[in-house]
Amino acid sequence: MIGTPWPTIRAVLSEIAREAGLRFGDRAVVVAADGVLTYEELDRHADALAASLAQRGVTVGDRVALLLPSGGDWVVAAVAVSRLGAVFAGISPTLSVPERSTLIKLLRPRLTLTDPDLIDGLPLRSEIATLQPGSRSIELPSIELPSIELPSSDFLKNRAAATAENDAEAVICFTSGTTGQPKAAVFCNSQLRAIQSIDLGPHADQVWGGGSPMLASTQFAHVGMSTKLPWYLRMGNTLHVMARWRADEALRLVAQHRISTLGVVAPQLALMLRSPLMDSLDLSCVTAIIAGGAASPPALVREARRRFAAGYSIRYSSTESGGVGIATAFDEPAEDDVQTVGMARPGVEVRIADSEDQQLPVGEVGELQLRSAAVMQRYWNDEKATERSLTKDRWLRTGDLAHMDSAGRVMLAGRQSEMYIRGGYNVFPAEVEAALLEHPSVEAAAVVPYPDEILGELGLAMICVSQQQRPPTLEELREHGSQLIAKYKLPDLVVIAEALPLTPAQKLDRSAAKALAIELLEA
């Protein structure tokens, strides 16, 4: 290419990566198994990879799948795709081969960028290019290809003008699929800017620097990385990535690099608190814990605050909301924190609605709905699913049941699809699980329905316990829980498991949990 500056385009990620390369130079942006990548190298390698992608026919508006391990190659690829005005979609390598194939078929990308070890099982006749780990580049076919001009400034400006009304699409994030077939949420550049403003404040576009080391706790394909990468680069953060997340290694990295903000999902935090390294490492650097992606049990919040001596903010969001939504304050009183997922963050609206999308009075249970400029544009190639998820005035139907108090604090009651009916009474598993987790011997819990000829459905609790030799009995659990919730909600059956099944995003896999709980019961 290169020798001439890349044309300036409206793609948020491309623009920020260019400026970050100039500002932060040899500072590491990613430290991972595929090597250390600096900000200057990111900008330079993204230019080179973008030229190679253009030679493979990738152009403005095309979709490119990134089936790559989290690390420097992934970030270079995302910026390179953005630099062409194309759309990148991360696919987690932790998914099974059939799951990865399903997402590729759903996306129908112009090209899939992948690690050589991840090719098996990809759909036949799909266009594939491989990146050798740490190479930051693809090998072009040995046959001579015609010279392909990179997009010109005029072309890209015209494209920007033509799409000014709806903005250009930039990122696709797949939902976790815990309650059904995964869907592909589309985010435009305007949504990336909105996410940045919600996370950094209204003057986010003027912020440069001030970042710090970060522990990457999720796959880069997750919405928490794919849509927030622009502002991570703007801050000059350094992302430390583990080939496989393990509590002991995570704690070592926190202590070694003096990581001040711990971004985790609740199951990861529970494993860290269980590690013997908690008492031997100097973790005084941690001043704030941000926990999202899964419920934070009250006992976990209390223990984490005590042992880390840090503030704890519970975050509620979803893929479709752009990873932003509701939060508790770091210094919120503990007695409030354990009851609520917080209030709407600045720039986000929240309401509790009935089946007709009408707002319900304070205290009534209904569907939690969010609205902000960060909410996805649509689902890719699924108009009906988009209409089911977004109202005409762009409120996002989350599928979660909740109620709100007069101060605007939101209390979750479970998912609509998870509710079961016991003897004519509606029971929401999340509420029962929260009560079970208050028992001092229970470390994790999942409640699922079990068929019954008399009551219709019974509550079957699957729990993980701290003392395998002396687990709590069903009677003990019911006695303890009766002080917190109505007796009809308490579990009728209980089984003990070594661990609960989780999705790659570390959320409870309810379908797998139900199958495992019934298998343990009937064994």
TrEMBL record:
Coiled coil: none annotated. Residues 431-507 form the AMP-binding enzyme C-terminal domain. It comes from freshwater metagenome. PANTHER family: LONG-CHAIN-FATTY-ACID--COA LIGASE, MALONATE--COA LIGASE ACSF3, MITOCHONDRIAL. One of its GO terms (molecular function) is CoA-ligase activity. Residues 21-380 form the AMP-dependent synthetase/ligase domain. It holds the Pfam family AMP-binding_C. InterPro entries: AMP-bd_C (IPR025110), AMP-bd_C_sf (IPR045851), AMP-binding_CS (IPR020845), AMP-dep_synth/lig_dom (IPR000873), ANL_N_sf (IPR042099). This is Unannotated protein.
